[in-house]
Amino acid sequence: MMLILTRAGIAETLNHFRDAGQRNSECVVLWLGKRVGERLEVTEYYRPIQIAKADRFRIPPEGMAELQAKLRAGRLMVAAQIHSHPHEAFHSEADDTWAIVRHEGAFSLVVPRFAADTTLDNFLDHTKVFQFSQRSTWDEVPNWQVKDKCVRIT
Ligand SMILES: [Zn+2]
Questions:
Q1: pLDDT of residue 104
Q2: Which residues constitute the domain of residue 57?
Q3: Measured between alpha carbons, how far is 81 from 94 in angstroms, rounded to an integer?
Q4: How far does residue 104's CA lie from ligand 1's centre (Å)?
């Protein structure tokens, strides 16, 4: 599956991360869109209601309810989730537990250093991409494969 993103959408996502980072907090953004063949076309870069700290986040029941209503109304799906970390980008145990998307092939992206030094141009180099496997593990996708097969920025 190929995620189709816009530069404006990535910029919006990074702005959310930097805002939260100023409060020393992680942030999660959900990329919503539609599946068209093998493409996941992202149309909304949505910051759900969340409870976040310096090293974790979760979406409370009212956030999940609002998300579900939004998905129904727009006939959208969660194409991927992306969140920020204070330091290194990795998939923590809490991330495994609280992942919103967990179907086979689902994408979860992590941006380091609260996106302080992440730009549109280095976004794919800074960000780590994980994919949910058949064995129910989050496996890191190598950077070349991300650029080649998983993400297209329009
Ligand atoms: Zn995390």
A1: 87
A2: 2-153
A3: 14
A4: 19
87 alpha carbon to ligand 1 midpoint, in Å? 10
Asked whether 116 and 21 are in contact (CB, 8 A), the reply is yes
- How far is the centre of ligand 1, averaged over its atoms, from the C-alpha of 99 (Å)? 9
Tokens coding 126: 């800074």
pLDDT digit string (tens) for 29-70?
A: 999 999 999 999 999 999 999 999 999 999 999 999 999 999
Answer yes or no: are the C-beta atoms of 152 and 4 closer than 8 Å: yes
- For β-strands 77-84 and 57-58, DSSP reports them as unpaired
Query: How far, in Å, is the centroid of ligand 1 from the Cα of 112?
Result: 9
Q: What single DSSP character describes residue 137?
A: -
Does position 12 have pLDDT exceeding 90, yes or no? Answer: yes
Among 36-40, 96-100, 104-108, the least confident range: 96-100
Residue with tokens 């730009």: 119
Q: In total, how many domains does the chain have? A: 1
